[in-house]
Amino acid sequence: MSELSAAPPATAHDLPAALRRFAERNGGDPDGPHRTATLLQDVTFRQAQDAAWGPMEGRHHMAIGQPGFVWEGRSPGVVLPRVVVIDAFVAGAGQLRVFLLGAIPVAHAQGPVIDRAEAMRYLAEIVWSPDAILRNPAIQWTQTAPDAVEAALDLPSGRAVVTLLFDDAGDIVEMQAERPDAGPDGVERLRSWRGYFRNYDWIGDRRIPLDGEVGYVDDGVYWAYWRGRITDYRLHD
Question: Which InterPro entries match (predicted)?
Fold first, then answer.
């Protein structure tokens, strides 16, 4: 994971006041030395709206001083994990890889659409890293409403944008975005993407939402495909 810690944290400028209060109240250190955060997750996942949920163990590495993450999900098996999923955004490039029995490659997606989609995942999950909010100068922040801020990254393939919504207590509880996806015909399309964050509490030295879920809105109906609970949280210099 050395690529994630390559850029030392810097000072993020022009943060909306509500966002700065959120990050500092939840333990974010504007002068800290930390370069990455690692989250362990108990996850359930499904591939389609009518598919069954399956358990996974998630390990999420997030960069603090630059946009980047590597997420590894493993479904349980008797000896080897049945499925291993690697979801990543590193050095401006996204990728999604799937392995059977931990070693047999069965899927590998990359390219401009994946780059923007994975950059948006980093922005959507910035709620789990108050330090990155304060110390990642690459993110462009804009207050769009009294209870909403927009986070954006400019990429060679286009702009990655998500909107984060606050509740009355000042916690980020929802994410909204139009996320790019390649349809069955290979043509890029935008899908309404949603995320929800719940049960804020202290874990280690940071206060974060311990529960979250992500899903799409298809034909006006929201359905979740990912649900997770944070079980451990560690910062690394």
Answer: DUF6544 (IPR046674)
The answer as to whether 189 is a domain residue is yes
CATH classification of the domain holding 213 = 2.50.20
- Asked if residue 5 belongs to a domain, the reply is no
User: Could you tell me the residue range of the domain that residue 135 belongs to?
Assistant: 34-228
Residue 195 tokens read as 């995320």
Q: How many residues does the chain have?
A: 237
218 exposed, middle or buried (CB, 10 Å; 0-12, 13-18, 19+)? exposed
What would the two tokens of residue 228 be? 């997770």
Q: Enumerate the β-bridge partners of residue 152.
A: 140, 161
Let me know: does 174 contact 196? Beta carbons within 8 Å.
Answer: yes
Structure tokens that stand for 9 in this block:
């944290």
Instruction: Report pLDDT digits (tens) over 175-234.
Output: 999 999 876 666 789 999 999 999 999 998 999 999 999 999 999 999 999 999 999 999
Domain count for the chain:
1
